[in-house]
Design brief:
The protein is α+β, with helices and mostly antiparallel strands and 135 residues long. The chain has a single domain, classed as STM4215-like. Strands 1-2-3-6-5-4 form a six-stranded mixed beta sheet. Strand 5 and strand 6 form a beta hairpin. Helix 2 packs antiparallel against helix 3. The longest helix has 14 residues. The radius of gyration is 15 Å and the shape is elongated.
Amino acid sequence: MTAPGDLQQALFLRLKSDAPLSALLGGAGLLEREAVNGAFPYVTCGMTSAFDGNTGAENDADQLITLHVWSKAQGEGETQAIMDRVKARLAEAVLIIGPRGQTRLVLEFSEARYDEELLVHHGMLRFRALTQENT
């Protein structure tokens, strides 16, 4: 099974190598978790879960990984631009994760909203990671 940490590392490497995304993010960039007093905008990795879509049981091949976009810009334009760039960079991406095999990412869900409690624009992108193990 591909460990969630391996998937996150490969995903972040792909995103960090994208110059247009780096330009959009500027300051903090890509973080493992929310920054308490970090520079905005930034992207964090949320929950990763492994399961079998047919049975709901744990599975070696399928994982869901959620990315969060955080922005304090006026309006949601910055959040949408970052989300669009992440989608473009990861759409149908094939990630090589060690000697285990390759993982293809498929976007399952995206949403952008304003969080009135935190006073930030919050975007979410959920990808399904489909892994084919080397045999």
